Amino acid sequence: MPHFEGDIEKIGMEESSSPQSSSSAVHELERDAAEASSPPAVGVHDAANLNDMNDNDDRQFEFEEFTEEEIEAAATSVPESRPSVNIPPHSAIQSAGPGATPELMEMFYQRLFPFKALFQWLNHFPSPTSSFTNREIAFTLQNDAYLRYQSFPTYDAMKKEVIRLNPSRFEIGPVYSANPRDRKIVRKAAFRPLEKELVFDIDMTDYDEIRTCCSGTKICNKCWNFITVAIKVLDVALRVDFGFKHVLWVYSGRRGAHAWVCDKRARELDDAKRRAVASYLELVRGGAQSNKKVNLKRPLHPMVTRSLNILRESFSSTILVDQDPWRAPEHVDKLLKLLPDKALNQELKKRWETTSDQSSASKWADIDSLAQQGVSKSLDAKELKEAKQDVVLEYLYPRLDAEVSKHLNHLLKSPFCIHPGTGRVCVPINSARPETFDPMDVPTVSQLIDEIDEYDATHGTSESSEKLADYEKTSLKPYVEYFHRFVSDLMKEEMKEKRQLDQENGESLDF
Ligand SMILES: [Zn+2]
């Protein structure tokens, strides 16, 4: 990442670099109002902290204020030699690895980012409403500075500013009661967050203690199954238990996924209701140290029973075969700790000690076979069955970063941004078929720019190719089309509701 070396002051490094809860963001709002008259300053994240940020790429950060000149300086600190639409020298792309160079980012914003669809998604109507114009957009610039409280009258204005600032990514915040740019000139009470999509974050970090195939920022198709299963379980809960219809799942660009629940009812939830939804969905709790993370009363809640049925389908393949967590003799205690009967556990331990290479699937089968042989006089079959259910839940039930969901004013990275570490686009995931999504297949920004170039080279400037939008020439096409359909469904419903409301109001006026 390029570092800004101008005369912009570095302030509040520690504070600004640590992810914080939104409750402290509320305090920041208050402090912001109190400090409205003090000179604004620019904060710069250091490289190490930026890496953290890229991973937990959906946290809320301390905000800093910028003057127009400082924004200008930051934007122009990006190398001057930016070809506007030409392919940069290949060496430039290679030196950036899979990540995105500022040159590639600018081309991506100019030619591929679906600004109009993003606007319609946030706005819900064809022409701008306060849902878009009072919506906070926060930019992370190429020099790592973080720019909050931006807002735009139209998608075209947003597109122009994004191309000018060329941020490494941007986040979407709530719709405020006033234009976020005016927050210092309106009364404090007149500036408050009104609505935002209900969001969820699933990140592989929360699976690090149970996944065995990869660690750190790495992922593979085996561990991606944790995310696939999580999407299945949460998606059905949101639709069936809460009646939401417009749930958009988005790849976070590296090793996780975000859900955006866009129904009007969801957008209008206050923090208390968001907390309630999050805690309803959160079953697996406790840090790496606690032995048992699932503690459920019986009979099971119907939501848990349904989730278990979904999880059971993948437990054998995802956990027993792919992760194989209890194969090594030193790992069997992890499993035994979750089983209730001492005598049975002793017999299992004895059997597993004699084999140095027994698969987890075979060990899992041993539990029932030894239990049926009557090795324990005290065995409670029902208790054992419930403990095994808890093991399935502990290993496979979605692990939510619930803090992200609890606050109306939490910012979350926009769909179709580029992940700075991988260069991959944060594309939507089809929630009807999450198992068909392969994160390794998601195009990178450099790949997409190459694809446009290749398409133009093979098709020339024929009339038919000129009619195509650039995204249609690339592997981004199915993702953009999926997003278009999602947005169109959402807009149709909002417009229908509005017509009904207008009609009702019209009738009451007539009366
Ligand atoms: Zn893996």
Automatic annotation (TrEMBL):
<feature type="region of interest" description="Disordered">
    <location>
        <begin position="1"/>
        <end position="56"/>
    </location>
</feature>
<keyword id="KW-0639">Primosome</keyword>
<dbReference type="GO" id="GO:0006269">
    <property type="term" value="P:DNA replication, synthesis of primer"/>
</dbReference>
<keyword id="KW-0240">DNA-directed RNA polymerase</keyword>
<dbReference type="GO" id="GO:0046872">
    <property type="term" value="F:metal ion binding"/>
</dbReference>
<comment type="similarity">
    <text>Belongs to the eukaryotic-type primase small subunit family.</text>
</comment>
<dbReference type="InterPro" id="IPR014052">
    <property type="entry name" value="DNA_primase_ssu_euk/arc"/>
</dbReference>
<feature type="compositionally biased region" description="Basic and acidic residues">
    <location>
        <begin position="1"/>
        <end position="13"/>
    </location>
</feature>
<keyword id="KW-0804">Transcription</keyword>
<dbReference type="InterPro" id="IPR002755">
    <property type="entry name" value="DNA_primase_S"/>
</dbReference>
<keyword id="KW-0479">Metal-binding</keyword>
<dbReference type="GO" id="GO:0005658">
    <property type="term" value="C:alpha DNA polymerase:primase complex"/>
</dbReference>
<keyword id="KW-0808">Transferase</keyword>
<dbReference type="GO" id="GO:0003899">
    <property type="term" value="F:DNA-directed RNA polymerase activity"/>
</dbReference>
<keyword id="KW-0548">Nucleotidyltransferase</keyword>
<protein>
    <recommendedName>
        <fullName>DNA primase</fullName>
        <ecNumber>2.7.7.-</ecNumber>
    </recommendedName>
</protein>
<keyword id="KW-0235">DNA replication</keyword>
<dbReference type="Pfam" id="PF01896">
    <property type="entry name" value="DNA_primase_S"/>
</dbReference>
